[in-house]
Amino acid sequence: MTKVSGTGVYDFRRHRVAEYPVYGEAPPVPEKPTESRPLSNVPSSITLSEIQRDRLTRIAAENWMKTADSAPTKPFSPDLAKEIYSTELTVKGGRKPVPLQRVMILEVSQYLENYLLPNFNPETASFEHVMSMILMVNEKFRENVAAWICFYDRKDMFKSFLERVLRLKEGRSLTLSEKTNYLLFMINAFQSLEDEVVSERIMRLASLECWHSLSYGRFQMELCLNENLIKKWRRIAKRARDGTKQGGNFDPTTMLEANFLRNLIEEFLEVLDSEVFSSISNEENDPVAHGSEYVNDACVLYCERFMEFLIDLLSQLPTRRLVRPLVADVAVVAKCHLSSLYSHEKGKLFGQLVDLLQFYEGFEINDHQGRQMTDDEVLQAHYKRLQAFQLLAFKKVPKLRELALANIGAINKRADLAKKLSVLSAEELRDLVCAKLKLVSKDDPWSERVDFLIEVMVSFFEKQQSQKEAINALPLYPNEQIMWDESLVPSINYSGEGCLALPKLNLQFLTLHDYLLRNFNLFRLESTYEIREDIQEAVPHLLSYTNNEGETAFRGWSRMGVPIKEFRIRDVKQPKIGEVKPSAVTAEVTFSFSSYKAQIRSEWNSLKEHDVLFLLSIRHSFEPLSAEEAEKATVPQKLGLQYVRGCEIIEMRDEEGTLMNDFTGRVKRDEWKPPKGELRTVTVALDTAQYHMDVCDIAEKGADDVYSTFNILMRRKPKENNFKAILESIRDLMNETCIVPDWLHDIFLGYGDPSAAQWINRPDLLENADFKDTFLDANHVKDSFPNYQVHFVHSDGTDNSDPCPPFRIKFPKNPDGAVHFQPGNAASTTSSNNSDAMEDDHSDKLELVVESYVPPDPGPYPQDQPKLNSVRFTPTQVGAIISGIQPGLTMVVGPPGTGKTDTAVQILNVLYHNCPSQRTLIITHSNQALNDLFEKIMERDVPARYLLRLGQGEQELATDLDFSRQGRVNAMLVRRLELLSEVERLARSLQLPEDVAYTCETAGFFWLLHVYSRWELFLAACADNKDKPTFIQDRFPFKEFFIDTPNPIFSGQSFEKDMRAAKGCFRHLKTMFQELEECRAFELLKSTVDRSNYLMTKQAKIVAMTCTHAALKRKDFLNLGFKYDNLLMEESAQILEIETFIPMLLQRQEDGYARLKRCILIGDHHQLPPVVKNMAFQKYSHMDQSLFTRFVRLGIPYIELNAQGRARPSLAQLYNWRYKDLGDLPYVRENHIFRRANAGFSFDYQLVDVPDYHGRGESAPSPWFYQNEGEAEYVVSVYIYMRLLGYPANKISILTTYNGQKLLIRDVISRRCVPYDFIGPPHKVTTVDKFQGQQNDFVLLSLVRTRFVGHLRDVRRLIVAMSRARLGLYVFCRRSLFEQCYELQPTFQLLLQRPDHLGLNLQEFTAFTDRHVDDTGSVQLISGPDEMADLVNYRMHEVYQSRVASYHLNESWSEHDNSVENSTANPNTSTGTDDVEMNGDDVEMQATVNVDVTDMPTDDGKPNDST
What we know:
alpha/beta; 6-stranded antiparallel barrel; 43% helix; 11% strand
């Protein structure tokens, strides 16, 4: 049966692996100094040879490193682990907790997997051994590779390891760097709660036992507020009493769970209070002087990490419930606010993290019910708390009588409340906070501080700003302050060693509002990063300077930026009721592009409504920055950038004031004129929230008037400039009553039963389904349900011994009436025609009733015949189709080449026929995938009038039909005229007036009065004349209309057959008038806009768009009343989480309920995730986690397709280990294309070891721009070799893992291939990431790196790289580096079973061979790129010589022809024998040339006859 998987074997949470900068000390290499270059501070600044000579590498080779050629010989030495830890893994001073390069070398050498873990003994392992394991796990998390996978085979040992880790601090004092590393391990563990091995032990730390460490007052208060916990606490107390009886003296407060978190918090507070600032510097370069004190950077990092730890605990409901009272009891936030670090310049990031912690501590949620609180509930809870305090103050604290009698508004704010509390003495205040209110313990040493007590009181009782109010007051456009704040928008060289003030997207979210808020912040900051990069690219080209008048001027030009001639605020509208910001602010910007080229002018002229622009203020400094100043200066200081503000275009006018690019209909088509002049005036809408903030700063702080300083207008590329619409969509969702369907809500947030949304658990499922053309024959049905006894019946319920498609299936039920059905068999990928199998004993199998029925006659014309499916779906695909047509959540994992698109199309096809009234929305990530899906839908039995394609990629559809809104409207109008002409012909055939076909409405009356009535009379007459075979032929009322059918309709020999044909004819008429009825709306609506909106909201049954288009147009969809019942999302593992969520909510709720019935997600989480440009957002915040991947991590059931039809079975083995049961379709095992060898090559795939080329391996001309010249030359040489053999260029793709190598290979191709027409460029030279979703017959892959593995350690990138080729894959890399990588072992072990030198068969000279793929033939091993270059150069020289000879031959033949003509004219002229012999030689050479040159295939594989 179909394997519906819940949780996978691997840890899927790890995302992208990339290179990070290292600022630590270089490894000691005495033999040779480290090579370095300016700007190259990356780990790869040391060479591979230096790594190989390094001390750690030598130790690894001797003790634990395993290679194909050798294995370690020395036994485990505990002293070696201690010595490595003390000398290599500890730091002395500095901010960084580990020497990163040393850790990287150890981790890559599999120190953890091969040495530390196998030799770990929980009883005898040393402290250094355990800490070394912690560091290795942390490094795996930093590099975003699966960290826990090596523990899966040793789960008992892992539990012992965790126990040792939790008790590591007992009886031992850790250094500050060890505390930081220990804390980072705990952060990583709590972020891996989907892993049962981890969560089982780690979650005990956040259990109810931790309340043993609460102060007595807080404990009483929390139990009173949560009465349901009293029973649980009593059970804990009973267990403690039982333990006391059995073991004597048992104290539950001494348990590890009771004190672990409390001890961590107190340790942090001690560091924060006493170690961050010190008066004496112990290290010369460690602390930073600040007055008479020094700031310890290592302590600052520890404090930041601890804030991250607490934020993680409070932002996940399972840990938040019981940890939040502990955080409040210790008053962590209040103590952090009062710390010196919070207000210190070095504590900026720490302060931002404290604020984020405060936000999550007071988050608007009922912790124990997990329910989001409404704004009204939050306000009422605040009032109730204040009133209780006032009542207490009135009774118990006479000095607070004024506060007790004040109205709520007078004590809402922080300042007012603090002022009223200041009347109390220190002792009275302490008694109030600690004894009466019990907010903190009297034993807390901070309780002696008045400022601390007031901070606790104020934080507890002040009115918090509503989250909705906060988000609405936030500008959508970034400004200069956010753009260059490294703690919010880190630069690309984020190393992963520190934390950031950013939210994380992990497994679970507190509420939908929390989910949207995190995504809003991350998406906004990711957009900010991209905008910042564009500004840094555009502004320097303008070459600003200060002119004689002291004003900033520009002597350069930029494609994306122009100087502003004039800027003025045009209108500021009054705020809406209840708001303080203006309702709208508009401005006019005038600019000139007189000095720009025509192409750039046209780009500026194409700006239209809703495009986003940026206003920049550049103020050039009078004095240029010195070298020292420039080194320390920030980017804005270097650019002279003062302010950045965003705006949105309302309209644009030319120099004469004529409106340009109007799509609203104000300018009619016949009145349009080309724009005049070189000045353009753009009316823009400014961000009202930002404008309000700027005006308040001017009024309150005397700040500059930002809006009088703008002097540059900048635009961005349209495809990258859609962030504002998406942010508005998210903000609108936060302001709405955002209703996710009830069946999806809990699962979406990460809670509840993971299988609750699966169709077999839904109450409204389909009990019967018509599968139409899904099954090709009866054997196909049996093969698809091997666990059931398939019982075929007729429509009347009688047995059917000769069943034929189509089929209806009735899903079996349990005795209690619930559907119990598991379709398919994952192991069965082939169909069986064995008749014996049909007679198997089915006594132990459930019965599956399958009805074979005869479909009605569709009509007499060819166009009436339905389009049928020809794909023989596998049992697993059938299981996915069944799940997809049923209500609920369906997840389909589609490995490469397993037919994801065909499965999706059949789901849509069957769903349309079973639920014809429902509407389906299709979402994909790319236009290419959407068009592939759409083109296949058009080949199925779904009428074209019900299909609609929205967005910009519609023109790329490979079809003659136009499926855009305008195209569909035009098609409906054309179809209306065609149908009315048919109605007119029908009226003539019935001898009725032809004016019945004047409109759709008259045609409808004609149908009722004349057509349908005649049919009813005919049926009544037939009922009495069934014994007359010719009755129908004689009496059919529409015989005259169907006289033009290709074949005669009636035979006159069988009443039943003729009756079936008559019904088919009537069905044709009925469909015709039904279409006319659908055309009637287009007849009544006169506006093109109204017609297209009607088409989208009412007519179309299947609407397709990209996720970006859905986010951009959400507001328009809501306003138009767009509705849909089903959502199918392809490429869902490549779509950002928020861009997956928005398409679920493109419609308004109906009576408070969501209309969405089905959600079908199709993707592959084993391939690359969504693209996020900023590494910090990928790595720290996990922004590149898709909703599909998160659902897989949560254990939600999914169906994994298990038969690939793309690649040779041998090639598929390189990646099918990553999937559970991925097999091969019979096609790839039996077809001769896959069984034939690759001509000229000994193997169909091979790893080719590339040594240093001219003494160099990889190089980095600039950071993260990796190149490898040797691999580039080698790859291009192999490509030339293939072209010389006759391989078509369009069948060869060259892939690489880095952009730098891609550009280098293109340069080599331009030099060595493009000049020769018989070689030319390959089909594509691109990166692995860009080639995802594509394929080719032959792939040449360059892995580039020779020092560190780099981001190929992300197994998902490896899977994409290995699965692109169908027939041949040749991997060029440094063997000694990649064979040691633990994550890549399954693939590279297969690759290394073959020689690591390229094996060629030089006896084959064409692209065709009969050699079997397993036959290597005569193997010639190529030693390296130089030998390969010599080989292809020799062969190219042969071709060149042949071409020269051909040219001379043609010349000599031309002379010969002339001489023959002359000799004919003059018989006395004779020809010498030498000339005859030469011509004979030339003829022979011409034959050779014809073989070598004219048969050479061109790019399209056709013979090259140009010669």
